[in-house]
């Protein structure tokens, strides 16, 4: 793992370590109870470990995969001491995350062959969607990109106002209409403006309602169709924002949204305020959709590009 410690700046790594502190402390206090009085990894330890992983919000299916891998290691090595369990867990979780596309990037980048690169952001209200958009806009601008925001969550005046605050804070243009306007119309205007301005990145906010999946599906499909009148292959990325502090509820939201629309990447927020950081492992494994960003603090710099090696390193530090 030492190889991966050089990927992030030490400041970013410290933020990640601090952001995952509650999750890590909770996990290891449960783990130490699970192996108390045991010197060897036996069936009892594995049963206890299964409970630790499930109650740490890793999810049942992902937990069973991890347990199966550890059972294979026990069978192969004949004797496995509980003192080695931490190292083996760390290795197997890293291997599991390595099997999908999550967490290869280390910087905020967009493909150079798409201009403007159109990012449509979806997610229920309250998960940190607007904040994630603002922090993303800040990072892209910081890397020299010209960014435009589109306030297509027109069902709540607060959503438009919040996005305006972020646009002012980051000092980037925003395209908006009155509350109750057609979201597709806002998206169309945003893309037209972005093309005129020769923008590099467009971030479109959308309404976060899940009470009626059919309505949501129809609305997002319409937004996409109308955007494609301006840029034929837009959106280039559909980013689903999930609140990590809700644990298993984040799984449920991911299920609902992936049924309602094609989701191509994930952001998991609010990991600093919760002991449920294990949810990132389960979501990354179960949905086979790359976790691209994680929120590990309230500061403007505290949205990080998810890197699985750094995440596992911080979780098991």
UniProtKB/TrEMBL annotation:
Its main location: membrane. SMART domains: AAA, SRP54, SRP54_N. Its EC number is 3.6.5.4. Keywords: Cell membrane, Cytoplasm, GTP-binding, Hydrolase, Membrane, Nucleotide-binding, Receptor. It is a peripheral membrane protein. It comes from Neptunitalea lumnitzerae. It comes from the Bacteria. This is Signal recognition particle receptor FtsY. It is found in: Cell membrane; Cytoplasm. Belongs to the GTP-binding SRP family. FtsY subfamily. The lineage of its organism: Bacteria, Pseudomonadati, Bacteroidota, Flavobacteriia, Flavobacteriales.
